[in-house]
Design goal:
10 helices, 6-stranded antiparallel sheet, 2 domains, globular, Arc Repressor Mutant, subunit A, Jelly Rolls, Homeodomain-like_sf
């Protein structure tokens, strides 16, 4: 049985504010079902990465690339007895949409959504690992990071064969967007299921079925997820964990700690200290030779 070891390190880019890298090693931790506002590009380094996303259960061995679209619900845990090691790069949609447009030679491209979650793509894998290295080691310049992001965007467009932006919305999509917009506008309020379903112009029971079907989460899970994401931004801006907990409707700091840790692997205080202090205590990330390299 592998020794219990779980470590999470977050690194914010010095050059691109909406770019973050997570380096993780875990075998005694499982993520709650959640979703990120950003694109998430991952590479499994060791062990096996098991997770549920997009209505399917996935198993990612070392060398595989993982791509999660914005708002794509997922969980995650180590598979088997070996320690899971992986790196994840989080990039805001705004940052990538401009790169998608440049790749296509357009003024704008809209939001790209990949149909692939697991990929065996050496070029994309190398670009992700290189970007993670640039951020965690604080080497290179802004143009180095932007160039690597451009390589990632171009690789995705090429894999898709043709670019199909997520631009056309069906009526259910439009109604659920109203619900999501309402939730985001009232994160600090005590909203009810009735409030949200009314904002979507749907009956409560129809809304519940439709929301779960399209988002992969219940409305309650989605509200908590959005509050945690907003809380993370507030922590990065320097707000105290106690203030953040009460601002976003958590019963107390203990409740906030539990919810936050199930998604980010550490308490709000640990996360805030990690992001704020890592330039002073930076340990550069170096990859050992991999069998798939």
């Amino acid at each position: 049985m592998a020794k219990q070891t779980t470590q999470f390190q977050f690194f914010k880019s010095r050059h691109i504010p909406e770019l973050m890298v997570l380096k993780a090693a875990m075998n005694d931790f499982s993520y709650d079902f959640h979703a990120h506002e950003e694109y998430a590009f991952g590479v499994t380094l060791s062990g096996r990465q098991d997770f549920f996303s997009g209505g399917q259960f996935h198993r990612s061995p070392p060398g595989n690339v993982i791509l999660l679209n914005p708002e794509e619900a997922h969980d995650g845990q180590p598979g088997g007895d070996s320690t899971l090691g992986y790196v994840m790069v989080y990039v805001s949609p705004r940052q990538l949409e401009a790169l998608f447009a440049d790749t296509l030679g357009r003024e704008s491209a809209g939001q790209f959504r990949s149909d692939e979650t697991l990929m065996s793509d050496p070029a994309l894998r190398q670009a992700i690992l290189e970007l993670a290295r640039l951020v965690t080691c604080q080497v290179g310049s802004r143009i180095d990071q932007e160039h690597t992001l451009y390589q990632m965007a171009a690789g995705l467009v090429q894999r898709a064969g043709k670019f199909q932006p997520d631009g056309t919305s069906s009526r259910p999509d439009a109604l659920l967007k109203r619900a999501r917009d309402f939730i985001l506008a009232h994160l600090e309020d005590d909203v009810s299921l009735d409030d949200i379903s009314r904002a979507a112009h749907l009956s409560k029971y129809h809304f519940l079925r439709l929301f779960r079907q399209q988002s992969g989460m219940t409305p309650h899970q989605y509200v908590i997820n959005c509050r945690i994401n907003a809380a993370r931004s507030a922590l990065e801006s320097g707000a105290g964990p106690n203030d953040v907990a009460f601002r976003y409707g958590f019963a107390d700091l203990s409740h906030f700690n539990r919810r936050f840790k199930r998604i980010y692997g550490m308490t709000p205080h640990q996360y805030q200290r990690s992001v704020a202090s890592y330039p002073r205590f930076l340990t550069c990330w170096k990859l050992s030779p991999m069998p798939w390299a």
